[in-house]
Write a structure and sequence with these properties.
Layout lengths: L6 H11 L3 H6 L1 E9 L2 E4 L1 H15 L2 E9 L3 E9 L7 E10 L2 E8 L17 E5 L4 H12 L3 E6 L10 E4 L5 H15 L4 E4 L16 H29 L2 E6 L13 H21 L4 E8 L5 H11 L6 H11 L11 H12 L10 E4 L8
Parallel strand pairs: 1-6, 7-8, 7-10, 8-9, 10-11, 11-12, 12-13
Antiparallel strand pairs: 1-2, 3-4, 4-5, 5-6
Helix pairs in contact: 4-10, 5-6, 6-7, 8-9
This protein binds NADP nicotinamide-adenine-dinucleotide phosphate.
Length: 374
Amino acid sequence: MLPHLPAPVRAYILAANAADIDGIVARFTDDAVVQDEGVEHVGVEAIRAWATQSAERYAPHLEVTSWEGGAGEVRVGAIVSGEFEGSPAPIRISFRLRGDRIAWWSASAPSSPRFTVDPHELRGRRALVTGGTRGIGAAIAQRLRSAGAQVLVTARSPREMPGGIEVITADLATRAGVDHVVAEVEAAAGGIDLLVHNVGGSTAPPGGFEALSEEVWQSELDLNLLAAVRLDARLVPAMLQAGSGVVVHVSSIQRQMPLPESTLAYAAAKAALTTYSKGLARQVGPRGVRVVVVSPGGTETAAARAMIERLAAGHGGDLDAARQDLLRTLGGVPLGRFNRPDEVAELVGFLASDRAAAIQGVDYVIDGGNLPTI
Ligand SMILES: NC(=O)c1ccc[n+]([C@@H]2O[C@H](COP(=O)([O-])OP(=O)(O)OC[C@H]3O[C@@H](n4cnc5c(N)ncnc54)[C@H](OP(=O)(O)O)[C@@H]3O)[C@@H](O)[C@H]2O)c1
């Protein structure tokens, strides 16, 4: 072990190498976030499950070769060996510390070409990612940041983010929330060059169309359609003036394959978001602004992961069986797995870059083949 490694990081590595699950979990704050293999694990119970599973599956051993950083943020370079293909392999682990505990842990394999990002590609661009503290949005925010962009994210609750990503807290389902975000963006960055509308989701009750009250319809439309429409109305005019900018709307394959039991209003809102995006792209394209849509299928975010862990209880704790069961209820996914958030982020990172300069007004599906038709 290298000398002077900050104490919480040292304690974590000693516990990890001893496969001491309680020791690993004790190093984290109660609300800590672990990002591993593109999947988020949030809070002590999820981190315990992650540590247990990775110890059982890979029996990893870390040998630290370098580290940098200070009291708040520490980046460790290490060689990880264990029961996995390609072992031993280099790994880089980022720790964000709060006091003597770890509030954020994320790992990446610096040698993997799959994750190679040009750190200068988006240098000088100012990006806003709505709903960017968790799940797909957090992965997009980090992908844009690693390409050199200044990144602001929004969420209702504050959350520590790595790498200088700033959080604006606001409820984007309200007009007041949009006003607040616009004011904060102006103060922090003076405008936006890349706008990623990722915020979305459904809180509708089960029970089909009869269970969808007027209020439920309104709140699903507010979050999944009008948040983007309202923010575009405030931020796109400056892009038009500048003659450049990129807007990415995150929709869903449900725009084309609605699930009637509980997410009909969500699916209809996402369909409207896709149609609106096409019209906006046609209008603003001639003035240098690109608008594109990304439609993910099932994606293994921390929330999806927690659901799989709950379902696994009915499969004797077998996570893979629970996952396969869920994939079947979605109509079957030919690739046999969910997306990883960083895979969706990779697509957004490409579309946001100048490499996609000729791509306008289209909707990219990323779903492992889940949609049965083109
Ligand atoms: N995950 C999937 O399987 C999947 C599949 C297809 C499409 N999508 C789409 O992908 C996008 C991201 O989904 P996700 O699963 O990654 O979401 P998620 O894990 O639930 O994260 C949602 C993010 O949005 C924020 N948020 C939620 N409501 C908000 C509000 N009213 N105002 C401001 N921020 C809010 C959350 O923070 P706070 O809670 O602190 O506000 C969080 O940062 C959504 O548009 C979703 O429809 C997801």
